[in-house]
Amino acid sequence: MSKFRKLGVKMLGLAVILFVGLGQVQAQEYNLVNKESSLKVYGTSSLHDWHIDAENQSGKINFSSTEAGTIDQLTLNIVTESLKSGKSGMDKNTYKALNSSKHKSITFKLTKVNTVTDKGSGVFEVKAQGDLTIAGTTKNVPMNFKVTINGSKITLDGEKTFKMTDFKVDPPTAMFGTITTGDEVTVKYSTIFK
């Protein structure tokens, strides 16, 4: 084997190692940490304001570059019957309205990132679109959130307001219809990925 051929083989090997190594550095996947994440749904009723906590969430976020805050993929999954208000009657009405026996999960899947604004120190403001599925109805909705990248920990903070009827969910009622729930709800979240 000639000197040039040996050198060519070595260079090709080095190129392959660099390419594979860079691919692993660039594409980074993080998993949602349920115990550290918070998602609350706030609403109103004819009696009082209320909120429900999501106790069981899962999901993943992939970045092509954490330095630039470039998200390739984001999925979130909330177990419908993990929504808890601390009041069993309210929870039952919620599960009935969401048809939880048929629709076990509420999901969000990122479909498009419109803009990423670098705020410095690993903080990015993201304007995106995604498919939100509630009670079997999927809508593509705008979703704006803040991403904070701190080493191996990623935090997504944001809120989204929408109407239950947009997802064909009848706002729950109680006491034979004497207590009615407002149609509009606001979801506030601080989601941790590691």
TrEMBL record:
InterPro entries: Lipid/polyisoprenoid-bd_YceI, TTHA0802/YceI-like_sf. Pfam families: YceI (PF04264). Gene3D superfamilies: Lipid/polyisoprenoid-binding, YceI-like. Residues 29-194 form the Lipid/polyisoprenoid-binding YceI-like domain. Signal peptide: none annotated. It comes from the Bacteria. This is YceI family protein.
